[in-house]
Write a structure and sequence with these properties.
Layout: E1 11-15, H1 19-30, E2 34-38, H2 42-50, E3 54-55, E4 66-71, H3 84-91, E5 95-97, H4 99-108, E6 117-122, H5 127-140, E7 144-149, E8 165-170, H6 173-177, E9 186-189, H7 197-200, H8 203-211, E10 219-223, H9 227-238, E11 243-246, E12 263-267, E13 270-274, E14 282-287, E15 301-309, H10 318-334, H11 339-348, E16 357-362, E17 365-369, H12 376-383, E18 389-394, E19 412-418, H13 422-429, E20 434-438, H14 440-452, E21 458-462, H15 475-488, E22 492-493
Parallel strand pairs: 1-2, 1-4, 2-3, 4-5, 6-8, 6-9, 7-8, 9-10, 10-11, 11-13, 17-21, 18-19, 18-21, 19-20
Antiparallel strand pairs: 12-13, 14-15, 16-17, 16-22
Amino acid sequence: MIPVPGFEGRRIAVFGLGRSGLTAARALKAGGALPVLWDDSVSSRMQAGAEGFAVEDLTTADWSGFAALVLSPGAPLTHPKPHWTVEKAEAAGVEVIGDIELFARALAALPEGERPRVVAITGTNGKSTTTALIGWVLKQAGLTVHVGGNIGIGVLALPAPTKDAVYVIEVSSYQMDLTTSFAPDVAILTNVSPDHLDRHGGMEGYVAAKARIFAHAALSLVGVDEDWGRGVADELTTRGLSGVRISTSAHPGESRDPALSSEAHQDGGWSEAGPTDLPKNWVPAFAGMSGEMGAVPGKLTFAGRAIADLSTARSLPGRHNAQNAAFAYAAARALGVSHEQAVEGLMTFPGLAHRMETVGTLGKVRFVNDSKATNADAARQALASYERSFWIAGGRAKAGGIDDLEDLFPRVVEAFLIGEAAGPFAARLGETPHRISGDMATAVQHAYEAAAATGRDEVVLLSPAAASFDQYPDFEARGEAFRAAVLALGALPANVP
């Protein structure tokens, strides 16, 4: 646990007693604060009381006595309308913060020479893989690494800080909305596409929340394969900040070009990856980074040479994973990891469950679980990774459905549709071969039979391009249902990391 100082003897309101809320309360208590907890759920309040916390109805509490409100990221700060606790806090002049801000303050309270380093990752898609990949590369290089935040363990539940440690933290737009002083040594924005727009009042608010990760960062790494990411990078340049723009396309913005190279294009204090004639799986090399983040030069340039052929990597297929690898390599080099150690880490990364995960093979058919692809942009990365696939898609559709995937339909040999979106997806697929399978087990059976009938090496790909909540509690449960259906066919299980 990371104790949070600065509120000794003061009452702190904590609303929302899920993973982050209870962890924040424990960290505050360990730092000497007097947390006062509340949740709409009776069982959550009972659990808090059983742990010895003060549980008080915040609807009738005297808010003038609180030093801060620690708000669950699940409760709206501004849109569609502020949560009632936010309204009460603002009326009483009480600051509203979240667990990432508490983490930032806990580290800032340490003597300068005792502070650990922090790598923070956000983005619409790819942030979990990038977070896990960076953690893996740093661990393989022998560093003391703690991975958490919006992935796995809540940030304040990670081990207490030591000066040799590196925290690799995934942060969501909801969490960033609740920060004011978060200052990572390396801040990463993987990409931006429409998501959670109801919570941020539209795309501009969503992008602004993501961009807060760079407010106090020492080094900024920005994916610029779409207009919004380039806009963020341009704004940082206008503010005179230095960083690296990472692109996998011939001209930043052309996200469907799979090339990736080490060519350096200087633009003020920024350097930018754009390709020459290198193979599509090559990762750019970053030079000019020292081991201490404070000594990172104002300009980060590419060495003009490629460093790793990802076609031999264990679990990094596709253009999007080449970009994830570029982020990981740059972050590792910035923290003093050698070129050789960084490349070795990329090559041996085992991957994450539900993210381009091979779960089994049966004959010449390989089954790939990409259940984490809950929107079209995420599904694009998977579909673009295979020349042909038997695609299982559907669930609860998000805005736009699969409209943006039309250019990839020729790669789909046949689609097998499930859930609420089956009908609308079928209509959008048009002449692309498809059938409505309805449920996961039926879709897997249909897809396998069709793939096996070709006699070729084929891929059955679950990349739903939709949320899971119509049939499953979350994307993990959906992915496990896919795995179970695949193994029920008699497939040989793949090694699961």
